[in-house]
Amino acid sequence: MATLKALVVDDASFVRDLVKRTVRQRFPVIDTTDAQNGRRAQSLMSRTTFDLILCDWEMPEMSGLELLQWMRQQPQYEKTPFIMITSRGDKDHVVEAVKGGVSEYLGKPFSPEGLSNKIIKVMGRRLKDAMDRGGKSMAGPAEAFRESASLLTQKREAASPAPVRASKSSTSSASGSTARPPMSVASVRFSDSTLRSVVKDITLTEVRVIAKRDQQFPGILDQAVVDIEVAEGQVARLNGYVHQLQAVDKRQDTDFVGVTIRFVDEDPKKLEDLSRFIARFRSGG
């Protein structure tokens, strides 16, 4: 029987479902409620007391950082664990979250083990005692309890790939045919690897990229974050999942693989940025 309450906040229902499923499977003593943005989460938190907040950063109406800052001003939530789960992994954003009072920071895409370890770390003895009372064993390495909070700001720059740029010169596509200039390069991040690829086609709902076969490829339905430069110096980080993997050529020894990523973001700002990129991509400019 659940004895702890967690609130999962993300504008993408796919991500909320992933988080809730992981919590339910790993920590059956935690009951989960979800909200599609910070404003809805704020309303729920005003009516019910939660023991853990698992929250995205970029959301419409109220961001995760704004929710965190509001939460730390409420007496009942001054010390409640708050895990920021986001594709924003650069050092400046990590530092900003730390200043806001974040308990832990988890980059997207995340693995079930990574999320579990963060929950174990921030919940500590309270979670272990609840699991013991429920007759459940605690999953996750013991070192998750011993990690120092100072690790939040260390080596974060190495964990987040540099923004990718569209090439300014004509080049050939992965399948060997001449591509429209300029070619758009995309960095597709998974929980344990990054795929360097070229955008073949893109819509508001999905992107198809072509990548060399000698890289590490994901599995169907794996989480993904697609980093695309939508304007000069402005990178959109689009959350999604792997919908399809397909050989570019009919030959078994083809050198290139097509990967289709379905987007799950519902943030109007991200959709606006994506629309501008699509217009530029289709015009070849």
From TrEMBL:
Modification 4-aspartylphosphate, positions: D56
Record flagged with keyword Phosphoprotein: yes
UniProt xrefs under Pfam families: Response_reg (PF00072)
Segments of skewed composition (Low complexity): 166-179
Residue ranges occupied by any Response regulatory domain in the UniProt entry: 5-123
Alphabetical keyword list: Phosphoprotein
Region described as Disordered: spans on this chain: 156-184
PANTHER family in the record: TWO-COMPONENT RESPONSE REGULATOR, TWO-COMPONENT RESPONSE REGULATOR ARR22
The name this protein goes by in its record: Response regulator receiver domain-containing protein
